[in-house]
């Protein structure tokens, strides 16, 4: 009788075990279903956005967000220049770098996080290109970074370093304007800047720099972005300004401190 009791008590299961097992099964099933649904929804949304964003969608986006300053027909207003002839390359550059839409008037439009998705920007650019064609996107080989780095560095020093600094670290211009740093700029935006001449930058047409020259400059800048900095602190790569300030503060400061210490010791 005692042995039978032991066997029966050992074979019993708690009533909460079945509940816990059912709950775990429901939780796992629900998690898998939710994950699969979210993945499918994201894929559908992406496909739908890509399929729906046409030139007509670009026109609607332009009229809702850009026409206030640039006019309903790209003719420009007192608050913004005309976009006739600027082309899709300029539109992509200005919007993808966050310079447009402009938040406030100033000496220069600052770079910031873009307010539109890549698909929306391409749609608006396609609309502008369809109304008044202009500079368009280059061939892939121009942006591949496989040009002549040495020749590109020489061209950069001759044509660009006076504003962007020889190390592409950027620099100040007149009246609150500035040449931005190129240390993280993409190849497409380097090309777009040379072709469209945004802000205070001049336009480098084929008569100034051929596509092969532009490819070499882009290759040199991409090489410089990936290069390992050697020789100690770069100090922003701003040349004698930051270097002189460093020497003045730390070098002369150390000499003054040493002089004070020697004088105190002698007394």
From TrEMBL:
Its EC number is 7.1.1.8. Pfam families: Cytochrom_C, Cytochrome_CBB3. It comes from the Bacteria. Binds 2 heme c groups covalently per subunit. It catalyses: a quinol + 2 Fe(III)-[cytochrome c](out) = a quinone + 2 Fe(II)-[cytochrome c](out) + 2 H(+)(out). Heme c 2 binds at residues 160, 163-164. InterPro entries: bc1_cytC-su, Cyt_c-like_dom, Cyt_c-like_dom_sf, Cytochrome_c_Oxidase_Subunit. One of its GO terms (molecular function) is iron ion binding. Residues 53-132, 147-225 form the Cytochrome c domain. It is found in: Cell membrane. The chain crosses the membrane at residues 245-264. It is a multi-pass membrane protein. Keywords: Cell membrane, Electron transport, Heme, Iron, Lyase, Membrane, Metal-binding, Repeat, Respiratory chain, Translocase, Transmembrane, Transmembrane helix, Transport. Its main location: membrane. One of its GO terms (cellular component) is plasma membrane. Heme c 1 binds at residues 66, 69-70. PANTHER family: CBB3-TYPE CYTOCHROME C OXIDASE SUBUNIT FIXP, CYTOCHROME BC1 COMPLEX CYTOCHROME C SUBUNIT. The cytochrome bc1 complex is composed of a cytochrome b (QcrB), the Rieske iron-sulfur protein (QcrA) and a diheme cytochrome c (QcrC) subunit. This is Cytochrome bc1 complex cytochrome c subunit. It comes from Microbacterium bovistercoris. The lineage of its organism: Bacteria, Bacillati, Actinomycetota, Actinomycetes, Micrococcales.
